[in-house]
């Protein structure tokens, strides 16, 4: 498979990067704590082409590679708002692709009672519910009064509902499976961006912070920390791009296994790089005035969406076990056949 990005994909990545630098700057990030998205953001995102990137040809996975490139930038700049679910919902919710309808979302297994935590629910127009075998849409007005709850990530406000009512069915089993896989890949892309942002923050500090007359980045112990961060983010990025490419063209490999691998590696990279950024910044890294805690908290939040690293590792292990078991059974069958012939 050819993994090289073409000129159009690179241009889109650069356009989204410039957009994020303008709309989601990290210089005064504390001003965004708990705040809703700025007016006009959704129109701008629609004009950029991000919200509708999965809407055309969704059944074939067209657009998932471009979406992954965009969401990597959103993760690196700690973008706010229900961008992920609005993008995933575009093929199923009219108005989501052009920014007229903002969509929050939640994954629920059948039989789930409550309470239910929904990110960005206060600024959504509808709630998309991803169940095991279907997709449902609930208008915001039909949701019950919320109960108390506090967010882990200050840039990801949440609302806690005692329960989520049954909504209008907008997709079946295949749609739910496809949306879940796209969610895994785009969540992985967000985590790759978070891991890259944490690395950039640690690297800048290591070059600027002087101790004993030299930058701390010249110390071998710090070099090793930064090198490990770089390896983690590049492995996760490669796996995420591969998952997106495989989803776009299933002939390239096992799309389900690729998505599991991407979310697993990206989750590990996001959390580990967030923690390491705190360590590199030392005493300052533990304070809320610095950037590392934002990256670490966002990684924790993203880790719990569309399957944790433990869940994906278990799925990969089961797939490998089935593959090996099938091969062993085949080998045993061949041996039995040879013995019978002899």
TrEMBL record:
Matches recorded under SUPFAM superfamilies: Acyl-CoA dehydrogenase C-terminal domain-like, Acyl-CoA dehydrogenase NM domain-like
Domain called Acyl-CoA dehydrogenase/oxidase N-terminal: residue spans: 7-84
Superkingdom, natural source: Bacteria
Keywords: FAD, Flavoprotein, Oxidoreductase
Cofactor: FAD
Acyl-CoA dehydrogenase/oxidase C-terminal domain boundaries: 186-319
GO MF annotations in UniProt: acyl-CoA dehydrogenase activity; flavin adenine dinucleotide binding
Record-stated family: Belongs to the acyl-CoA dehydrogenase family.
The protein, known as: Acyl-CoA dehydrogenase
């Amino acid at each position: 498979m050819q993994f090289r990005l073409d000129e159009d994909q690179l241009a889109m990545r650069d356009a989204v990067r410039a957009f994020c630098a303008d709309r989601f700057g990290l210089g005064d990030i504390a001003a965004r704590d708990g705040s809703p998205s700025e007016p006009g953001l959704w129109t701008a995102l629609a004009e950029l082409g991000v919200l509708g990137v999965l809407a055309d040809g969704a059944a074939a996975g067209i657009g998932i590679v471009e979406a992954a490139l965009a969401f990597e930038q959103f993760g690196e700049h700690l973008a706010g708002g229900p961008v992920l679910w609005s993008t995933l919902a575009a093929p199923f919710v009219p108005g989501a692709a052009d920014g007229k309808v903002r969509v929050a979302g939640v994954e629920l297994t059948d039989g789930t009672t409550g309470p239910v935590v929904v990110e960005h629910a206060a600024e959504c127009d509808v709630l998309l519910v991803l169940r095991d075998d279907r997709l449902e849409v609930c208008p915001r007005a039909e949701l019950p009064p919320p109960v108390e709850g506090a967010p882990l990530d200050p840039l990801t406000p949440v609302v806690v509902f005692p329960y989520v009512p049954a909504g209008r069915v907008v997709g079946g089993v295949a749609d739910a499976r496809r949306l879940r896989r796209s969610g895994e890949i785009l969540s992985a892309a967000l985590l790759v961006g978070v891991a890259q942002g944490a690395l950039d923050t640690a690297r800048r500090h290591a070059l600027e912070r002087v101790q004993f007359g030299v930058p701390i980045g010249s110390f071998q112990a710090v070099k090793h920390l930064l090198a490990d961060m770089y390896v983690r983010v590049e492995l996760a990025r490669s796996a995420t791009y591969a998952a997106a490419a495989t989803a776009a063209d299933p002939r390239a490999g096992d799309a389900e296994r690729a998505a599991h691998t991407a979310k697993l590696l990206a989750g590990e990279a996001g959390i580990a790089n967030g923690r390491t950024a705190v360590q590199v910044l030392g005493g300052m890294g533990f304070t809320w005035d610095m950037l590392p805690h934002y990256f670490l908290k966002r990684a924790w939040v993203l880790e719990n969406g569309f399957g944790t690293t433990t869940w994906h590792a278990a799925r990969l292990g089961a797939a490998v076990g089935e593959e090996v078991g099938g091969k062993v059974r085949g080998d045993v069958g061949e041996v039995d056949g040879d013995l019978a012939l002899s």
